[in-house]
Design brief:
about 375 residues, binds zinc ion, globular, TPR-like_helical_dom_sf, 20 helices, mainly alpha, Serine Threonine Protein Phosphatase 5, Tetratricopeptide repeat
Length: about 375
C-alpha cells in the first residue's frame, strides 16, 4: 500500500474509532500503518486516542508513557520532561499548524487527567496553563476548550476550589454548542459543583431539560448514566428521597447490564451506591445503611480506579461507624471508626464524589465518643 493511502486509511480509522466500539482494534491498526514519514498530526491523534483508551482502562502508567513517547521521547519519564516540553511548544505556536497545536492542547489535557487520576493534584494545578489559547487561535483550537475546561475544573474541584470550577464551567456553558460532544459532561460537572456549593436548586434547573430529553430516548447512553447520577445526588440534597430512590432503581438495572466498567463508570457506580446508602442513613434506616455502606465498600475495593485506600474508603468506614453507633453496636462502631480515622489522618480529602467531603464533616462530630477511646 502506498504511503499516502496508508495515511488516508489511518485518518479515517482515527475518526471512526472516536465514535465506535472498535476503538482498540482501530488504534492498533493505525499504529501498524503509520510510518516515520506520516504527518505529525496523525501521530499526535493516534497517541492522544491511545492515551485516553489506556486511562479509561485504568492503565495510567502506560497512558502517560504513550504521551511521553510522542512528545519528549524520553526513555525514563520524569516529572519535569512533559511540562518543559509543553511550555516550549507553547512558545512556538506560530510555527505549528493550528491542527497540531490543538492536538498538543488535548495531549497536555490527557497528561493532566493522568495526574488527577494518580492523586497528583498539586502537580496538575501547577501545569494547568502549560497550554493556553493564543491570540491567533483558530476555531480548531477554540473547539478543544470544553474538554480542557472539564479537566481544569476537575483539578479545581480536587482542591475544593468550587468557586473557580463554577466560574470556568459557567463560562464554558455560555459558549457550548448544542452538538458539542462533551456537552452533557460539562453540564453534569457544573451541576455537581452547584451541589458542592449548596446550590441544589440551580443544579435541578440545569439538569431538568437534559434529563427529560434523555428519558425519551430508547437507547440509554453513557450521557444518560451521567445525568441520572447527578440528578440522584441533586435530589438527595433537595431531600426528594422517593424520586431519588426511583432513579436509583433504574440506575441499578442499567449498571447490572453493563459488561465493562471503565474508570468513569466505576466512579458513577460508586456515586450511585453512596447516594443509596446516604438515603437510608438520613432516613434513619440504620440497618439498611450499614448493609449499603458495606456493598459500596466491596465495589470500591474491586475497582482499579480506587486502588489506593484513600478518602472514599475513610468516608465509608466513618459513615458505617455512625450507623453502627445508632444501632447500639459499639464494638463494630469503634472498629469502623478506627479504620476510617486512620486513613483520614494519613492523607488529604478528595472531592471525587460530590458533597461526600461535606458529609464526612457532618458525621465526624457525631463520632466524638469513639475518638476519645483511641
Ligand atoms: Zn518524558
Amino acid at each position: 500500500m502506498p504511503r499516502s493511502l496508508k495515511d488516508e486509511v489511518s485518518e479515517a480509522l482515527l475518526a471512526a474509532s472516536k465514535v465506535s466500539n472498535i476503538r482498540s482494534k482501530a488504534l492498533s491498526l493505525v499504529a501498524s500503518l503509520l510510518g516515520d514519514e506520516s504527518p505529525p498530526h496523525l501521530h499526535a491523534e493516534s497517541a492522544l486516542q491511545r492515551s485516553i483508551l489506556l486511562r479509561l482502562d485504568g492503565d495510567f502508567k502506560n497512558s502517560e508513557r504513550v504521551i511521553h513517547d510522542f512528545c519528549c521521547r524520553c526513555e525514563t519519564p520524569g516529572q519535569s520532561c512533559l511540562p518543559i516540553y509543553f511550555r516550549q511548544r507553547q512558545k512556538q505556536t506560530v510555527e505549528l499548524s493550528h491542527r497540531l497545536n490543538a492536538l498538543y492542547g488535548l495531549l497536555q489535557r490527557s497528561h493532566l487527567e493522568n495526574l488527577v487520576q494518580c492523586d497528583q493534584y498539586e502537580l496538575a494545578k501547577e501545569q494547568i496553563d502549560d497550554w493556553q489559547l493564543t491570540r491567533t487561535a483558530s476555531p480548531m483550537e477554540w473547539d478543544i476548550l470544553p474538554s480542557r475546561t472539564l479537566t481544569t475544573s476537575k483539578i479545581f474541584r480536587s482542591q475544593g476550589a468550587f468557586k473557580c470550577a463554577q466560574q470556568n464551567l459557567e463560562l464554558c456553558v455560555k459558549v457550548l454548542h448544542h452538538r458539542e460532544p462533551t456537552r452533557v459532561q460539562v453540564l453534569c460537572q457544573l451541576a455537581d459543583v452547584y451541589n458542592d456549593l449548596g446550590f441544589s436548586a440551580s443544579a435541578s434547573e440545569l439538569l431538568a431539560p437534559e434529563i427529560e430529553k434523555s428519558r425519551k430516548k430508547i437507547t440509554k447512553t453513557k450521557a444518560f448514566r451521567r445525568l441520572l447520577v447527578s440528578l440522584v445526588e441533586t435530589n438527595v440534597q433537595n431531600r426528594q428521597f422517593e424520586t431519588a430512590r426511583a432513579d436509583l432503581e433504574q440506575l441499578n438495572i442499567i449498571f447490572s447490564k453493563l459488561n465493562h466498567f471503565n474508570v468513569s463508570d466505576q466512579l458513577l457506580h460508586v456515586r450511585a451506591l453512596v447516594a443509596s446508602a446516604q438515603i437510608c442513613h438520613i432516613q434513619e434506616e440504620f440497618g439498611g445503611a450499614v448493609e449499603r455502606w458495606d456493598i459500596t465498600l466491596r465495589h470500591v475495593r474491586s475497582y482499579n480506579s480506587f486502588e489506593a485506600e484513600g478518602f472514599t474508603y475513610s468516608a465509608i468506614y466513618l459513615s458505617q461507624s455512625h450507623a453502627y453507633l445508632e444501632l447500639g453496636e459499639h464494638k463494630r462502631a469503634q472498629s469502623s471508626f478506627d479504620r476510617g480515622k486512620a486513613i483520614l489522618d494519613r492523607g488529604m480529602r478528595d472531592y471525587w464524589i460530590p458533597t461526600f467531603a461535606a458529609w464526612v464533616t457532618e458525621v465526624l462530630p457525631k463520632l466524638q465518643p469513639m475518638a476519645e477511646v483511641t
